[in-house]
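Hi support team,

I'm opening this ticket because the web form for multi-chain structure prediction keeps timing out on my end. I have pasted the exact lines I submitted so you can reproduce it. The total is 806 residues across two entries, so I didn't expect it to be a heavy job. Is there a limit I'm missing, or should I split the entries? Thanks in advance, R.K.
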Amino acid sequence: MNGLKRKSLGIAVTIALTVALVSGCGNGNKETTVPATSIASQPASSSESPKTAEPISISLMIPYWNPEAPKANSEVLKEVQSYTNTNLNISWVPASSYNDKLNALIASQDVPQIVYVLANGNKNSGLVNAVRSGMFWEIGPYLKEYPNLSQTSKDLLKQSAIDGKTYGIFKSFPQARDGITIRKDWLNSLQLQEPKTLDELIHVMEAFALQDPDKNGKKDTFAVGSSAGLNGFNNFVLYNGGPNQWGIVDGKITPNFLTKSYKETLDLYKYFYEKNIINQDFPSVTSDFELFNKGKSGMIFGALDDIQSRYADLYKSYPEAELDVISLIEGPDGARVPTRGVFPPQFLFPKTSIKTEEQLKQILGYMDKLADSTVQNLLKWGIEGVHYEVENGKAVRTDAQRFTQEVSQLDFLQYTEYKAATPGTLQPVVEKALKMQVDNFPNAIVNPAQPLISDTFVQNGSELDKIINEARTKYVMGQLDEAGWNKAVEQWRKNGGDKVIAEYSAEYNKLNP
Amino acid sequence: MPSGAKKNRFNWYDAIVYSLLLLFTLLTLVPFLFVVGGSFASTKELLEKGVVLFPTQFSLDGYKYIFSTSTFITSLLVTVWITVSGTAVNLVMTILTAYPLSKSELKGQKICMMLIVFSMIFSGGMIPTYLVVKAFGMLDSYWSLIIPGAISGFNLIVIRNFFQQLPEGLEESAKIDGYNDLQILFRIVLPLSMPVIATFALFYAVGHWNTYFNAILYITDSAKWPIQVLLRQIVILSMGGIGDSNAFDVNFVPPAQTVKLAAIVVATVPILLIYPFLQRHFTQGMMLGAMKG
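Hello R.K., no limit was hit. The queue was backed up. Here is the completed structure from your submission:
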């Protein structure tokens, strides 16, 4: 009896285990040469114009920022594929968890053939280690063989190199992207001129906070509605003559908070806080846009191109609002604007999935074709007659919602600035903002640490930043005096900051002998 | 708190307990009311007030936006499917494992229990798990969300302890009547264990309903993603995104606040509706399943 019992118990356990195994394998996809691609997103083979060569299959991993991923059967993608003669297997990953997925795939050696890396990718330890271990193709030497890729700016390639070598094709963002977006109607209602110098700027900020620019009889406005990141702080460091995040002091790469200009900016923000020129609850606010879009603050320091779309909420509540953009503010050292100062997003090419040089060249060929005007138009505007019409040589968007759903995210396949695409009709202020970004670039202040990698910073960078950011917040709120601030800086130095300085400096001197 | 100590009929102790309970109820209820209220408010009102419990202008814009594409519905269906089938697999596996392990005469029972406890304390981590899922060919299939967590060690131990408390005599007499082990399990033990099973069904179901990260990790086909992926993306984007605006594209438009709230409502209400049906088993089940020596 006992024997019987034991047997059937054993059977029960066995059944449980077999169910697990069978169901696991029941759906097993055949291992393809390219793992981690979606079966369902195989595009229908286009039976249009017979091509001489078979289309090349390429797998990509690309982030998206919309609520939903772009559809695999999108008409625009079909056009792109037929033009470039490829079958694109794109796995779209929500940007909100992109790095986690990327790190997991890198660790399990299971990456697609083209990998998009988010901005500041060279500070992502998983990726840095993978690059250093030789997981990715160094593509620098190949670029000259391609008509479009060979045009890439040498300076920017240097800025986006890892250990001085080019592994990726960087995505062009306007480098001198930042400036000030300001409520023109507030300036008018207070009869103020557009600020051109640091003193004028501070004066306007005081007026925005204290003189009731929206004429509602309440003292409820701020100059800057800041989040915990202290909106505009870095710009003021620059206006005061300081570096863009990191600078070169006595031949060493030094963080901006060790400079006099930073100290001046700290005191300036402390004054802003005392006088209610910035919002009192900034440490708990998550977005710099919140108060601005509520019509409660008059300025945002940030990407100038945001003026195209990020202030829609403001216009909904205040149709009379009028925005303008400013970028050059004269400080003691002249007018200074920052470059973005962070590593650009890049497309990388792993050796684990691109086995031969032959294959790499084909894939680079696809990248090269993306810069042709046909593809630029597709990715920027969509399909003519569906998403846009051409009037007098300029593209006019016909259906904004359809564009957002079907085209807007495809931009992440593209790396160029759309210089070869049909020009669009833009509002004058947007034209002005985009022109500013181009004009400011030649003289913009770069961050010398941008292309450098410090292992210590890769490991504990976020903790180090936290020390300084907390101290900065406390200082601005008056909870920390000069001695306390200096103590925080000491702590930063001790916890690895000095090492970071040494490592960055050594790297810098190695790359710039 | 005023303390005019009055005797008889008015019990201070009860008053304090009930007011605390009321306070905690409000603490949990008000945020939820805000989400529901805000989802029916217009963007403008939300922007101006920040918190809207009862919108003055009733608007369905948030819901219109969500249901303007089929994606929301399909991913909701995906989640329902994963929850139903996943929970079924969970229960079958957990019960079939727990029942034999509740018998001390099973050979190797001790070792099995030790291994299970060990797996509760030490896990392989994300990458090894990913490699296992990949090796079994489960990538890009719903199984990857169902099989790897099919048995939760903790739940298994609680259910096993419950089985151990069932009177021996029941099973003995069933045996004498000629039942074999499986018949005993399905006809005697399970009907007696309904409260416990209902409780853990709910635990497992909520877990599946909230599946998010594994789906991102194992599934590349966006048509197979559960609702939480979409929800998180909407919520994070409408908060102004992740990190610095440098990562954003030039044409980026964050979705409106109302959309975020409406998405939360649509994604949480279905699982909330399951609670009342299991409520009566729930309290009972937790008590019975509690460890007793």
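A quick check on our side: The first helix of chain B runs from residue 12 to 39. Let us know if the file doesn't open in your viewer.
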